[in-house]
Amino acid sequence: MNPFERVAIGDTAVSVTRLGLGLAPIGGLFGTVGEAGAVDTIDAAWQAGIRYFDTAPQYGAGLSERRAGAALAGRDRSAYTLSTKVGRRLVSGAPHEAGLWAEPSGQVAVFDFSAEGTRTAYRESLIRLGLGRADILHIHDPDEHFA
What residues does 84 pair with on adjacent strands? Predict the structure, then answer.
């Protein structure tokens, strides 16, 4: 099986490479990465043939999305698939998850599964990414919030 082969997601027109890159680490998960390290990571994945990238507002309280957008800028938008998440919005504050995120952004992710919160989270993600759309939108950690 070729990990760089593109496969369709169900009956949709969206396809992903079998191997994707989760972008929590470029948001400073457990250690400092920096802007250049984030770009280098995505460049190396691209050179290897990865064309599916997954990020979220929670990852570094926005750092992962901003860094992913910067690293993917200038690339043919139809050449890659990007997913992000809703269910958490960013607000000003210090992170609750001490030790998890090594590069504070001055924001913290808070749960918000409301209709307006979902629309706002997606809109704000697109701004951080510098993109007009995400190809896949996941609901992040809904397990304890079904009501």
Answer: 137
Please work out, in degrees rounded to the nearest 5, the angle formed at the alpha carbon of residue 26 by the alpha carbons of 25 and 27.
85
**68: its two tokens:** 């992913």
Q: Which residue has 């504050």 as its token pair?
A: 93
Judge contact between 136 and 9, C-beta under 8 A.
Answer: yes
Pairing mode of beta strands 52-54, 88-92 = unpaired
What is the C-alpha end-to-end distance of the chain, expressed in Å? Answer: 41
Q: Which of 53, 81, 74 is nearest to 65 (CA)?
A: 53
Name the H helices within 29-99. 34-48, 63-72
Which residues participate in catalysis according to the annotation? 59
Query: What stretches of 9-118 adopt beta strand conformation (E)?
Result: 15-17, 21-22, 52-54, 81-86, 88-92, 107-111
Q: Are strands 52-54 and 21-22 parallel, antiparallel or unpaired?
A: parallel
Q: What is the pLDDT along the chain (147 residues), one digit of tens a residue?
A: 999 999 999 999 999 999 999 999 999 999 999 999 999 999 999 999 999 999 999 999 999 999 999 999 999 999 999 999 999 999 998 766 667 888 888 898 899 999 999 999 999 999 999 999 999 999 998 888 877
Say how far apart CA 7 and CA 35 lie, in whole Å.
31
